[in-house]
Amino acid sequence: MESFSLILAIVVVTALAFDFTNGFHDTANAMATTISTGALKPKVAVAMSAVLNLVGAFLSVEVANTISKGLVDESGIRPEVIFAALVGAILWNLLTWLVGLPSSSSHALMGGLIGATIASAGTGAVHGDVLVTKVLIPAIAAPIVAGIAAMLATRLSYRLSARRAEGKAAEKGFRAGQIASAGLVSLAHGTNDAQKTMGIITLALVAGGAVAPDSDPPVWVILSAGLAIALGTYLGGWRIIRTMGKGLTDLQPQQGFAAQTSAATVILASSHLGFSLSTTHSVSGSVMGAGLGRKGGVVRWSTATRMFVAWGLTLPAAALVGAVAEWVTGFGDWGTALVAVFLIASSAAIWVVSRREVIDHTNVNDVEGDGTAEEPAGVVTTAIAAVTPPPAGTVTDDLTATIPSPAEVTAKPSATAL
Amino acid sequence: MKIDWAALGSVFGVSLVITVAMVGVFTLGIVGLSRHERAVAQGGSAAPAVAGAYACFAACAAVVAYGIYLIVA
User: Fold this and answer.
1) How far is CA A370 from the centre of its chain?
2) Nearest-by-Cβ selection for A269 from B1, B11, B73
3) DSSP A215
4) pTM value?
5) Cα distances (Å, whole numbers) of residue A117 to A126, A308, A325
């Protein structure tokens, strides 16, 4: 490790920063439905997810090795390229977090990597067919597969339980099931996404000559990547959690259970059968599917459309930033410094903008209109904030809001009996 | 460029079957528990329903255990 240069240190720190944004960007995947249905208190949910992410990070190095080997030619990669790629990915993650849209952190990372590689070594260094098979097709397939599975499962569940599963036992049962499947998603996320960062750091270490090519990630890389993603998860991307848990559709515990089970199954089945699907895409799809599966359930297609647009933009946007960043670092050390300053400054700017309308564990379940960070939405949120005095009451509000649903089911048969 | 349609198809099929089966079995377990709850409320008991419910939950737990095994392996 004697050749541990300054640029390599910068890359490692930036990669850990990306890992951190990945954590709080993707908390929503595992815990949004659990929080919105009231199965777990918001803080408890993110803490549980953080621990499981940390555990997941230590379980295998399979994914890390795919990242550091498959997508781009290792030979054309310098540490600066990876740095530029990470800048693109981090900025896209922060931007989508600001507007509260779930998008795939892995796509952001791949986009940044592709853009930076093109700027550095030309289009030849990117494997185009890998791009289509590993990025584009899964992005379309994941929400469809998870959505259909969740929709059918929700339908079946409501049909089986109609008039026969109500009361305390049913409610507690579905909550427990939901927590278990959400935990499984967290664990799978830890193994997948923490490892992506490990793969990136290892790729940088290989590119900088600090470790031999084709080696497994060193222990300190595994440890720091796991901790970074767990910390990010614990802080929670509440904006995205709100969109995923409340913005797309309204979920009851039974639907939340079906959605989370579908997502966990799709993620595990896909990674096991060699057709890896994005966690974010699978969960978003299954949440919408579960929303459609209940009678009278609605999906807010305007929110969904904005999310789809964000998915489409993820790769090109991160690629563009990555390419520009790589071009600037090409001017030498001051260029690299400039990019680093730009990254810190724009991250700070995004954070400052986010403080204008704070969303955290106290108001994550407050339903707002349609938009997330747009002006009218801000007005609605402040109006809601003015009407509901204690923020601590939101969780109990939600509990009482979900309880009437079984009563609704009981009301129906009695109405037909008349 | 070759798209692995077989892998995609099997992901779709396996996910669909497992998800629907899991949710279905779990719901049956909850139906069993609810029946027991009602029976207790009326002063009786429904032992077969409880046994069935636990069998359902055990089946789900086995699938989850297999899922964790897949993550680790």
Assistant:
1) 20
2) B11
3) P
4) 0.78
5) 7, 26, 11
